[in-house]
Amino acid sequence: MRNFHTAAALLVCMSIIAAAPIAAGETAAGGAMKSLGAKTFAQPCPVWVIGSYDAAGKPNVMTASWAAICCSQPPMVTVSLRKATYTYGSIMASKAFTVNVPSEEFLKEAAYFGSVSGRDVDKFKESGLTPVKSSLVNAPYIKEFPLVIECKLARTVELGLHTMFIGEIVDVKAAESVLGAGGAPDVAKLKPLIFAPGNADYYGIGASLGSGKEPKKETGK
Amino acid sequence: MRNFHTAAALLVCMSIIAAAPIAAGETAAGGAMKSLGAKTFAQPCPVWVIGSYDAAGKPNVMTASWAAICCSQPPMVTVSLRKATYTYGSIMASKAFTVNVPSEEFLKEAAYFGSVSGRDVDKFKESGLTPVKSSLVNAPYIKEFPLVIECKLARTVELGLHTMFIGEIVDVKAAESVLGAGGAPDVAKLKPLIFAPGNADYYGIGASLGSGKEPKKETGK
Fold first, then answer.
1. Of A212, A218, A220, A199, nearest in space to A42 by CA
2. Do B157 and A155 touch (CB under 8 A)?
3. Which helix (H) or strand (E) holds A33?
4. Do A44 and B110 touch (CB under 8 A)?
5. Which residues does A132 contact at the CB level (< 8 Å), separation at least 6?
6. Which residues contact residue A221 at a Cβ distance below 8 angstroms, ignoring those fewer than 6 apart?
7. Which of B3, B39, B41 to probe by mutation at the A interface, max A CB count within 10 Å?
8. Chain A to chain B Cβ contacts (< 8 Å)
9. How many CA atoms lie within 13 A of B57 on its CB side?
10. SS (H, E, C) B155-178
């Protein structure tokens, strides 16, 4: 049974945004800028599904958007989670997690994984998706998702409502169908989801805009 | 004079990706997943322009994509920078920075800000954009950009090639033209840029995909 009264990670974030007090208005010099107060309004945010095992070894997943790549050498990602989440305790104990990147076709699953707690339901069973035990870290990944990043927990940073989990990337696995000519995942094939704080809906990836580099004015070197 | 030989933050990230060794192949159980090794291939990533003052008080900006919201209470953002960047030293000294979110129309400026160092050029002067001194934190923001987040440095975390700068959000300022009906920035109006590791081009925001929630099967509560 799907337990929709459980606070969803994304919905909690959005309700916090909505409840935050508005700071006094301030206008930028000469501009029409409006002060919105101290809110989490940076955009765009990713939609990543975090995989972990609970203490009983049950695979669980939750959706998070306060997340990013945070280091190139060693390759690392960071995901911020509230202590109240079931995943928080699981990663603290297992010292590992996976980042599963949904494509647009998994929109419904991504929203569902952020709307219920693994304390109450078996999200793999409910969604029909398949947990695969990583051979590299103590965490499950979602077989059907096109891009998976396997991480061992490197560090945690307590910030307030959220705790930052910093994971060292041990391997990236991708469906051959989303790889580009250079062998890296091609965002236009992957079609990842985008979360935008303050917006109720998810968004897709748009058109390529080019590199932003000016064409060279001179030929030769 | 634009100094394109200076290493660009994004290009360095991409070249690191390209240079990293490929791990031994591994196939997910029953799937057609390809192991790509330990690489920074999570997607999508934001394109944020980080504003700071150098020791002489000169306003500077650089483009970064290893960045995210990282806490809701207090509202915080994290941006990872290499020690080699000019901005690294500036934020360490000034203890403040701004996150300036470019819309698609500022693609060229965002790419430029990631391709040269503030050590070598005055990026505001070269781009023609206008620095505004924040009245709340010791950092400049870009007057022409539609969304600005002013941050005081809360913490730094040394990870390796990158250092994580964690900033507490003091205020968010947005152009009235990008605000939605609820008063928050509307991603469809803002049109932020997207960076996708492994892809040479920037991308725009695509269509709204809805909330991913199933329609209710029953009326009433």
1. A199
2. yes
3. strand A33-37
4. no
5. A140, A141, A142, A143, B28, B29, B31
6. none
7. B41
8. 392
9. 2
10. EEEECCCEEEEEEEEEEEEEEHHH
Q: How many residues does chain A have?
A: 221
Of A70, A172, A198, the CB nearest to B78: A70
Helix, strand, or coil (residue B10)? helix
ipTM: 0.85
- DSSP annotation of B7 reads P
CB-based contact B116:A214 (threshold 8 Å): no
Give dist(CA A86, CA A109) in Å, integer: 18
d(CA A129, CA A143): 7
Q: Rounded to two decimals, what is the model's pTM? A: 0.85
- B185 → closest Cβ in A41, A132, A174: A41
Tell me the pLDDT of chain B (221 aa) as tens digits: 343 343 344 444 344 444 333 333 333 433 479 999 999 999 999 999 999 999 999 999 999 999 999 999 999 999 999 999 999 999 999 999 999 999 999 999 999 999 999 999 999 999 999 999 999 999 999 999 999 999 999 999 999 999 999 999 999 999 999 999 999 999 999 999 999 999 889 999 999 999 998 654 443 33
CB-based contact A28 B155, cutoff 8 Å: no
Q: Which residues of B touch A127 (CB under 8 A)?
A: none
The DSSP element (H or E) to which B198 belongs, if any, is none
| B73 vs A141, A143, A160: nearest CB | A160
User: In this structure, are strands B131-133 and A147-158 parallel, antiparallel, or unpaired?
Assistant: unpaired
Comparing C-alpha atoms, which of A87, A44, A83, A86 is closest to residue A67? A44
| B57 lies within 8 A of chain A by CB | no
Q: Which amino acid is at A78?
A: T
Distance CA A212, CA B201 (A): 8
The C-alpha of A90 sits at a distance from chain B's nearest C-alpha, in angstroms, of 19
CB neighbour class for B204 (10 Å; exposed up to 12, middle 13-18, buried from 19): middle
What's at B73, amino acid-wise? Q
β pairing state of A45-46 and A202-210: unpaired
